[in-house]
Amino acid sequence: MSDASSPARPSRRPVSPRPLARLLPYLRPHAGRLAIAFVCLLVAAAAGLVFPRVVRELLDAAFRDGSRARLDRMALGLLAVFAVQGVMNYVQVLLLSSATEHVLARLREALFAHLVRLSPGFFTERRTGELTSRLSSDLVLLQSVLNTWVSEFTRQVLFLVGGVLLLTLTDPTLTLTIIAVAPVVVAVAFVFARLLRRASTGVQDRVADSTALADEVFGQIRTVQSFVREGEETRRYQALLGGVVDAAVARARLRALFFGVVGFVAFAGVTAVLWMGGRRVLAGTLTAGALVQFLFYAFFIAAAVGSLASLFGHFQEAIGAAQRVFELLDTAPTVAEPAHPVPLARQSGRGATGVAVALEDVHFRYADGLPDVLHGVTLRAAPGEVVALVGRSGAGKTTVASLLPRFWDVTGGRVTLDGHDVRELSFADLRGAIGVVPQEPALFSGSVRDNIALARPGASDAEIEAASRAAHAHEFVVRLPQGYATPVGERGVKLSGGQRQRIAIARVFLKDPAVVVLDEATSSLDTESERLVEEALEELLQGRTTLIIAHRLSTVRRADRVVVLDQGRVVEEGTHAELLAQGGAYASLYNGQFRAEDVVGA
Length: 602
Ligand SMILES: Nc1ncnc2c1ncn2[C@@H]1O[C@H](COP(=O)(O)OP(=O)(O)OP(=O)(O)O)[C@@H](O)[C@H]1O
Hints:
Radius of gyration: 35 Å
Distance between the termini: 56 Å
Order of helices and strands: HHHHHHHHHHEEEHEEHEHHHHEHEHEEHH
Strand content: 5-15%
Bound molecules: adenosine-5'-triphosphate
Shape: elongated
Low-confidence stretches: 1-14
């Protein structure tokens, strides 16, 4: 499976428990704790099974033998049985829970670590809400399996097997009554469990839909509010919630019916036993104590059958969850690191030692089945050269820029850095050599310092400040309430657009890469902010090989070379002046896009 082509929804293959087996490696480190928990479980279940036997003795002591001393002994015995059971349950729950919490954390961590390594294409295919819900609800389901399911299942199986055995020992004929009823209960429970599973998946899908909507709306809150869509989005959410309720009510109806029907069938069986047993007590072939003991076992068996059936439903849900989680874990990145990378000498950012960048006859499409968006693009930037990419919207500029750090891989031709195919380099070398300044820089929640240090963890305060000064960010940062320690809010919402850009530039200064990929902002900032950003960029690009997706006249003028893209092809190449003189595609682009700026600037 590849990360770009997998379906958005989890697949519904026939359910086999195999995905659960893949949890085993995660359980192994806790084998000791789990083994002790299992022993405690066995002892607790055994105590549970002994209990009806002691009750029998107690009742017979009172009713048949009239022995006070035996009655006292038996009552104490009963207390002892419960005490043992209590201690065992305590230890078992504690050990099992602590082990499964660790397992869950490891699994979440593995999933997260895997997902963050998948290429951006994967995230454009999936809704992030769906992925975060995998991390939360599916893993919670898995935990419930490990935590309650395994122990409950074991306990109930023990009760069932032990119950039937002890029942047979107590009274074989009465046991036959039970054996006649049991298959009916099992069959009914089985059918219901299947129906329930289907209903549960329906509910989960709808919950995922509504979570995804909420996620999207919160992420785009400004757009939502600027178009006054709050009411409309709330209605959409409401409609989805309506779906959740309908599906959940349908499931509840099934569940209610399940409990009603299975409960009735089971208790009808108990009544039959009671009736037949009562007749045997009247006939003097059975003591009252033995009948009660028998009844207890019958209850145990009925309860075990009922629980096993509903556990079966949970089991199926958990298999589904495991399947979805492991499906994600199995998603191979479409952009994979080479097994034996060619080392790239670390170049300090500037000067003649810079790194050449080239696209050689590059063809590219975003996914199989989509049309090519680049048709044989050839483009070279010599060390230290500043190349501006221009072209109409949709020409392929962003696409070209995202091929350099391998956010996607070419479908034909190659991209090289310092003469090496980018696919031969380790991510650390490749991405370490390229500094990206995005059009709309996103900051992470955390302090200003953390956000700059992102480029080089472990950088000293002095280095951070130097980078910040170079990016003309220092001036505004020191005026923030807590200076470099000021939290910037999620995605940097507490900073202005120009300030965010300067933080993004400071990051690249700190990184000091040999190559810079710059997606120039289209929205204009106020003049002062604009000037600061421009000065910072001017400084940043000095001597670094640069690819700029240019939207400003000042940028194209300053570039050593301008490359004009049109519909995924390079149509012109030269300096601003040369291209303008040619009177071709660039000239018309200039007239449409850049000239107004020229007039304003003049
Ligand atoms: N993730 C994607 N999946 C599929 N197609 C895409 C994706 N991103 C871009 N495209 C398509 O690729 C083509 C080139 O887009 P690209 O973003 O590179 O253009 P651009 O020149 O940067 O445009 P703009 O100046 O508007 O940003 C467009 O036709 C676009 O629809």
